[in-house]
Amino acid sequence: MKAQLIFQEGSSNKFWHIDVQGNTYTVTYGRAGTDGTSKAKEFASPEVALKDAQKMIASKKKKGYVETSAKAVIVRDDHNFVGKPIRKFATSINPSSAVKVLSDYDEASKVSDKLERLAKLPEAQEMDTLIIGTWQDSHDPTLSPIIEKIKELKGAFSGLKHLFVGDMDSEECEMSWIQQVDYSDFYQHYPVLETFGVRTGEGLKLGNIKLPHLKNLIIETGGMNKSILNDVINSDLSSLEHLELWLGTDDYGCDIGMDELKPLLNKTYPNLKYLGLKNYHEQTELAKHLKGAPILNTVETLDISMGILKDEGAEALYNNDDLLKLKHINCRHHFISAAWQKKLKEKFASQNINLADAEEPYDEDYYYVEIGE
């Protein structure tokens, strides 16, 4: 058994790994980006070693550590973006953080105004990570002036490498209400972007993504239109390391089936380490089509979490020996029976398969993705 955990809070960015082999385990810990310190401990039996390791993992998680198995998995969460703590912009910035600009519903100053103020700071050219949060109103098509402002300020933001647009929770704006824009003309203004991501409900058009240095692409939806998927498939993304698509449900506009997904599964990305096809109402069917998929040739982490994955999909995963080469499989939020969970955990123990958050359908036959609305 192996477990890889990280802790990121404020200026802290630490890792803690444990590897159990027979009646011995080795713990390696330290600051992210270093080799860390390793210590080995021997026990009377493998069972005692495993029990002690599980106890230590639980203790670390109580202290705020979270489990991961590949750096790319944590490109974005509620507190961090590309490994940097998220800090809201007020009057000053720390260029080493992920700078978040937002405007509350009843706030006089708009996002465009704040971007203007941000651009005038001496540190603006050192900033390489920008997040756009809530704008007024996120469910109305008012994003265009913000995107135009970012394009206008490309001289002041010349160091920008990582951008996410639409970072808001359900209390700020339901995902399906977020109105996005056409980015076809945007990429030429920031050609060195390494990370590009959006959260969207409607109005998104990616066009031809001309970003030769793009490593991380994240599209979060409650229901993805096939035109968005086609834009991804048809773009040259040869530098991509992390591809994360929230496909969603037909209740919120997803019109993507296996016929639309096959061209993606048949593609090869020479540097791709993380593939996330998440929040998908057809996760069971997707699991069946993963066997022999060329896109998995280089992948280390397969993330099919947040969706409707049932026993039939679990069986497809179990019978797919190609998945044994992975470092991690994430199936969190699923509808898999206890019996099939047990089988998957046994087969994919070395992949540290995540089967947390087993769900029950509403009214016996209504299954749901984690985030629709």
Keywords:
373 residues; alpha/beta; q64v53_bacfr protein fold; eleven-stranded mixed sheet; five-stranded antiparallel sheet; 8 helices
Account of the protein in words:
With 373 residues, the chain is an alpha/beta fold. The protein folds into 2 domains: 2-67, q64v53_bacfr protein fold (Single Sheet), CATH 2.20.140; 71-347, Ribonuclease Inhibitor (Leucine-rich repeat, LRR (right-handed beta-alpha superhelix)). It has 8 helices and 16 strands. It has an 11-stranded mixed beta sheet with strand order 6-7-8-9-10-11-12-13-14-15-16. Helix 7 packs parallel to helix 8.
Describe the SSE topology.
Elements: E1 2-9, E2 12-21, E3 24-31, E4 37-42, H1 46-62, E5 66-67, E6 80-81, E7 84-88, E8 98-101, H2 111-119, E9 129-132, H3 144-152, E10 162-165, E11 195-200, E12 216-221, H4 226-234, E13 242-248, H5 258-265, E14 274-280, H6 283-288, E15 301-303, H7 311-318, E16 328-330, H8 338-347
Parallel strand pairs: 7-8, 8-9, 9-10, 10-11, 11-12, 12-13, 13-14, 14-15, 15-16
Antiparallel strand pairs: 1-2, 1-5, 2-3, 3-4, 6-7
Helix pairs in contact: 2-3, 4-5, 7-8
Query: What structural category characterises the helix and strand content?
Result: alpha/beta
Termini distance?
37 Å
Mean pLDDT, all residues:
91
Helix and strand sequence: EEEEHEEEEHEHEEEHEHEHEHEH
- Give the name of the CATH architecture of the largest domain: Alpha-Beta Horseshoe
Largest sheet: number of strands, sense, barrel closure: 11 strands, mixed
Count of DSSP E strands?
16
Task: Assess the beta-strand content as a share of residues.
Answer: 15-25%
Q: What fold name stands as the CATH topology of the largest domain?
A: Leucine-rich repeat, LRR (right-handed beta-alpha superhelix)
Helix proportion range: 10-25%
CATH superfamily of the largest domain: Ribonuclease Inhibitor
Question: Nearest-angstrom radius of gyration?
Answer: 21 Å
Give me the side-by-side strand order of the main sheet: 6-7-8-9-10-11-12-13-14-15-16
Q: Helix count?
A: 8
What is the CATH C-level name of the largest domain? Answer: Alpha Beta
- Total individual domains: 2
Shape: globular
Q: Uncertain segments of ≥5 residues (pLDDT<50)?
A: none
